[in-house]
Amino acid sequence: MPKGKVAGLTGNEAMAEAMRQIAPDVVAAYPITPSTQVVENFSQFVADGKVPTNFVTTESEHSAMSACIGAAAAGGRVMTATSSAGLALMWEMLYVASGLRLPIVMATVNRALSAPLNIHGDHSDSMGARDSGWIQLYGENAQEAYDNALMAFGIAEDPAVRLPVMCCYDGFTISHAIERVELLADDAAKKFVGAYKPLLPMLDIKHPVTYGAVDLQDYYTEHKRQQVEGMAGARGAILREAERYAKLTGRSYGHFATHRLEDAEVGVLSLSSSAGTMREVIDELREQGIRAGGLKLRVFRPFPAAELAAALGHLKVLAVLDRADSFGAFGGPVFHEVRSALYDAPQRPRVVNYIYGLGGRDLSLEEGRQLLRRVKTIADTGKVDSQYDYLQVRA
Amino acid sequence: MTTATTTPLSLKELSKKPEQLAGGHRLCAGCMHSVIVRQVLMAAEQPVLASCATGCLEVATSIHPYSAWRIPWIHSAFENAAATASGMEAMFVSLKKQGKLPADADYRFIAFGGDGGTYDIGLQSLSGALERGHRMLYVCCDNGAYMNTGIQRSSATPLGASTTTSPAGKVLPGKLQWRKDLARIVAAHNIPYVAQASPHNWLDLMKKVRKALAADGPSFINVLSTCHRGWRSKPSQAVAILRPAVDSCYWPLFEIEDGKLTITYKPKAKVPVTEWLKLQGRFAHLFKPAPNEAMLTAFQERVDFEWERLLRQESCGL
Fold first, then answer.
1. Which residues of B touch A54 (CB under 8 A)?
2. Does ipTM surpass 0.95 in this model?
């Protein structure tokens, strides 16, 4: 294993380090809290000549993604970073990026959406973009944010995939907290990401290509279907890149990670930073004789439905934590997908949904304990008080 | 900032150049967009990559699996032709600097937008791209309304024009506002080259394209384009109808090179603007008895005011 270095970095600094090592040909971005530091740090790398990247400082996130699309179609590696309202402003262009099959990689630093205005972490931004055709990876901490970024291009550029990738991590909790991060040596990172082989680049002037044609009733369905095939291809590519990465770093990733789940009676499924909190709580409750287990979902798109059903089917009760709501629906976005995945399982748990952590509210250990005890009560009594509920709401 | 063009424009030279926009596209007969695009692309001395805003030009030239474009071309959305082109240009600069493209690669980038995608929804992305200084030409094909979606008013729509969202009625005489002066707004970005042109004066337009593409930075050309559907004019008049627009000084032909304005065509005899308006059904209500006919006076006064201001600006060397 090539020797890397260990550093104390915020999630954003770790992401910026990954971007420095990847050295994309173009980065087009607009700063927005809490992702700002990513492009600030990257700007300094550009200013210091540490990357050959052409950094395009656009006047909005809409133009940032538009410039990313133009640059990627021209034929090179492209990255950006955003959060919250910035992702919402990109929304139209997210569909264009995936529809044109451009392998753009974006750091999505999760933050709440207005109104009321809130700059802190929750998942309403990326969950709002869940159907935009982007692959979504969620990192639990700064290390995973960094690791996901390095693996992202291998996934995005796979000929069987050709789809853009979001590397999501929680605003402030991860983006601004300093953690121990193990970085690859620059040359090892560069070698892992590899050289880019452009597919149908516009800059190949001798072979003119048309990007973004009008697609009427006679072809549109087929092209959308091809995006589905790309997502299907991503399942394998995500695991292959994880395997390659594990060989290099010893850190292994899958569609999800489990914690004491195999013999668990009650389980909790969550994304991103709350997964660590829940592991602590699970360990505590295990000491008290409660058979609790956890599952941390890393890949939300493509959704690993069959794998989740296999991993969760034996539980009596599963609590799904959603850090965003889908107003008017019966539960949050993760809940819907997980419960749907379990519906056809030969054996399935009762599934309950708790909305938590909105607008950056921390999920404390005590709240985690209460949550799992509530789930245990459901398992013991067979009675569900509320299948879809908010945690942490003050009276 | 602007460098002189090396090749003079002549019909002889142009007759030998390949067409970059193929025939068989679905633009209306009598639409000037394709004429403008052909003139622009033919004037270019370097290979061109283009981005295109959503609109008539885009939908009529790129219906999958066909494309009328013989150059690398992209459409990504309505309001972002400038931002998309700036991304392409940024990649070109990056790959060239890194040696991933040949050192002698000399390509140009052109963004095409209609007045909707330029004056209105795309103004922000245009402004951003101009401020960032990308070496690209933005061509606005201005037919004065949102023609692609059914002739709704835009901020480029002339005073008094009847459109589907500014219809002439019993109490309203069509559009109540004068059009936005986009060339001045663009010029305020202090870019090397800004011009206004009309395809009926093809030599003037193509010379301007050459100058614009030679500029070492962003350039912008606003081109008046006939839309017989929206203008309610005769398709056969597509070119001829542009002449009175320019000869009345409603659409002056000028350029602003490194901040200095030059009027590139001064009509020998300035014709009343009604000469242009009367050819279009969208102004027909203004030629009927009061109250609407007062708009004609207001229209003429505004044209005169703008033209006098342009002359003063030129004579002051500004």
1. 90-91, 93-94, 97
2. yes
Whether residue B64 and residue A215 make contact (CB cut-off 8 A), yes or no, is yes
- Nearest CB to A74 within list B87, B97, B128: B87
Residue B265 pairs in a beta bridge with B253
Q: What is the mean pLDDT of residues A43-66?
A: 98
**CA angle at B81 for the pair B80 and B82, rounded to the nearest 5°:** 90
What average pLDDT does this structure show over A192-205? 97
3-class secondary-structure state, position B308: helix
Cβ <8 Å between A203 and B85: no
- Cβ contact A203–B101 (<8 Å): yes
Mean pLDDT of A291-298: 98
Between strands B219-224 and A266-271, the pairing is unpaired
Grouping H, G, I as helix, E, B as strand and the rest as coil, residue A264 is coil
B 53-92 → A contacts, CB under 8 A: 58-59, 62-65, 67, 69-77, 79-80, 82-92
* C-alpha to C-alpha distances, B44 to A20, A305, B70, nearest whole angstrom: 37, 53, 14
A166: nearest Cα among A348, A18, A55, A300: A300
- Closest chain A residue by Cα to residue B74: A211
Q: What is the helix, strand, coil percentage profile of chain A, to 5?
A: 40, 20, 40
Q: Which B positions 119-158 lie with beta carbon below 8 A of chain A?
A: 124-125, 127-129, 131-132
Give the mean model confidence (pLDDT) for residues B11-16.
Answer: 89
CA A21 to chain centre: 20
Helix (H, G, I), strand (E, B) or coil at A128: helix
Percentage of the residues of chain B whose pLDDT score is greater than 70: 98
Chain B closest-CA separation from residue A144 CA (Å): 29
Strands A179-183 and A5-9: antiparallel
Nearest 10 degrees: Cα torsion A307, A311, A314, A316: -100
Rounded Cα–Cα distance for residues B278 and B288 (Å): 11
Partner residue opposite B90 with nearest CB, options A71, A96, A214:
A71
CA separation for the pair A214, A221 (Å, rounded)? 13
Per-residue pLDDT tens digits for B121-132: 999 999 999 999
Each residue of B132-168: pLDDT tens digit? 999 999 999 999 999 999 999 999 999 999 999 999 9
Task: Determine the Cα–Cα distance for residues B191 and A100; give it in Å rounded to an integer.
Answer: 32
**In chain A, which residues have their Cβ closer than 8 Å to the Cβ of B107?**
203, 205
State whether A28 and B49 contact (CB < 8 Å): no
Q: Is A205 on the interface with B (CB under 8 A)?
A: yes
Q: Residue A73's closest chain B neighbor by CA?
A: B88
β-strand partners of B50: B73, B110
Structure tokens at A393: 């709401």
Please tell me if residue A133 touches chain B, with a CB cutoff of 8 Å. no
Q: Which residues contact B110 (CB under 8 A, 6 or more apart)?
A: B40, B41, B44, B48, B49, B50, B51, B85, B136, B137, B138, B139, B213
Chain A residue with CA closest to B51: the answer is: A70
**H/E run at residue A225:** helix A220-249
